[in-house]
Amino acid sequence: MLKQAQYQASRKSCTTVLVGKAVTADGSTMIARNEDGGETPLPQRFVWIEANQPNTYQSELTDFAMTLPEKSFSYTSTPDAITGSGIWAAGGINSQNVAMTASETITTNERVLAFDPLNDAGIGEADFTTLVLPYIDSARAGVERLGALLEAYGTYESNGIAFADREEIWYLETIGGHSWVAVKIPDNAAVLASNRFNIDVVNLNGPDVLYADAVKSFIEQQSQTDVIDYEHINLRHYFGSYLDKDKVYNNPRVWLGHKLMGLDVSNVDPTEQDLPFLVYPDQKLNVHDVESILSAYYADTDFDVYHNETETGTPVYRPIGMNRNEESHILQLRADVPDSVAGIHWLGFGPNVFNAFVPYFANVNDTPAVIRDTPGQADVQYTYWLMRNIAMIADADFDFYQPMVQAFQERMQHAGDLFLAENQLAISVAELTTQNQQMADKYLQAANALLNELLNKGTGRMHLRFPMAD
C-alpha cells in the first residue's frame, strides 16, 4: 500500500514544455520540465546511471516489486538528494539518445476514477523513469513500455509523461488507475502542460494516438450520443476536471507559455478553461526561449509577480518560475551532429528566475561532484544550495538585485552556447565527461562571483544599519 507520509513529503507539481523539431531553431527535439517541490527545499542531484543495473526493483513508497530486463542502457537523471522516499529520477537521456521526463502531476475527474480507480499498490512518479528510460530505444517504445506497466500494475496518481528521440516527441497522460492515452506531438507544434488533464482533441483511430483498451469503453459509457466521432474527440471533456483552482493555478501558466512562444493572446482570457493543448508557433524557438518560459513570472503583463500582487501579498496567478522550482531540465536531442554529442541535458537548480541553465552531455560515464553529490542540508560548495542562497537574497529586493542576476544569466547563456559550438564533432565518452566537469566548474565559479556581488552591494541596504562610522 502507498506510504502516504513519504508520498506527500515528496509530491511534486510541475510545468512541462514540448517543442517539435520543425519549430526549433536547429531542428532538435526538446522536452522540458520544472520539477517543483513544497515550501521546504528538496535538494536534487544530477547523476549518470551505468548500464545493466540489477534486474530487481522494489518501490520505497508501495509494496510494488518487479523483475526488470537483464539488459539496460546507461542514462542521466536528477534524483532526490534525500533518500528513503523513492528515487524520483525526474528525467534524463539514455545512451540511445532517448529522453524522458516524468512527471507532470495532473487531475482527472471522479467519473473516470469511479470507472478505473487509482491503485495504492501500483507505481508512480517516484518509479517511472527508473522502470522505463533504461530499457527503450525510441520515444514510441517509451510509451509502449510505460503503457504496458500501467495496465499491468496500475498507478496511485494521475500524471503526464513525455518522451523524445531525435525524430519524435510523445506525451502520455494517465487517466485512471490502469488507463492512459498518448499522442505524438506534430513536428510543427509546441505544448505547455500544467497540473490538469491537458490532451484535448485527437483522432483516436489515427496512427499518432496510443491508448489503453479501457479508454473507448469509458467514452462509450459516458457518451450522450449514439454516434461517437472518434476522429475528432475531445478527451479533456471526458477525462479532465474543470476546477475553480485551474483558473488561477493552471490555465494562466498555459496562457503565459503561449504568449512567450510568440502567439497572440491579447484577446484570450488567462483563466480560460479550454486553452488548446497543441499550438503552432510562427517563430522558431531555441533552448533559451524554453528557459525563459520555465522561468516566467508574468513580467511585462498585468500579473507580474513582483509588481502586481493582491491585497494579501500573493501573486494574482501561479507563476511558472517560482520558489518551489527544485531542478529544471531541457532535454535536447540535436540534429545534424554525431550520435555521441546529440543528447544534451540542460540543467538548472533552484528557482529559475534567479538561476541559469547550462548544457551537459548525456553520453558520459560520470557527472561532476558539485552537482552529483548534493547533500541533504545547506552547503554552498554544491551548486543546488548555492543557487538556493542566491535566490533567497535576490528575491528579497528584486528590482535592486535583478540586473546582477540577469548579467550572470547572460554570461552563462553565452558560455553554454560556446560550449556546444566548440563540441560539434564526435568525442569520446572520457572527453565528454571532462567537458562536463569544466562546465560545472565554470558555473560554480560564476555563481560564487554573483553571490559575492549580491553580498557586497546589498550589505549597505540592510535594515540593520547606521550610516555614521567610527
UniProtKB/TrEMBL annotation:
Write down the superkingdom of origin.
Bacteria
What GO molecular function annotation could you give as one example from this UniProt entry? cysteine-type exopeptidase activity
The membrane-spanning stretches of this chain are none
The GO biological-process annotations, alphabetized, read as: proteolysis
As recorded in UniProt, its EC number(s) are 3.4.-.-
- What keywords sit in the KW lines? Dipeptidase, Hydrolase, Protease
Record's catalysed reaction(s)? an L-aminoacyl-L-amino acid + H2O = 2 an L-alpha-amino acid
Enzyme group, top EC level? hydrolase
Hydrolase keyword on record: yes
One Pfam family linked to the record: Peptidase_C69
Query: Record's NCBIfam families?
Result: C69_fam_dipept
* Family membership: Belongs to the peptidase C69 family.
Q: Which PANTHER family does the UniProt record give? A: LD30995P, SECERNIN
Q: What is this protein called?
A: Dipeptidase
Species of origin = Weissella minor
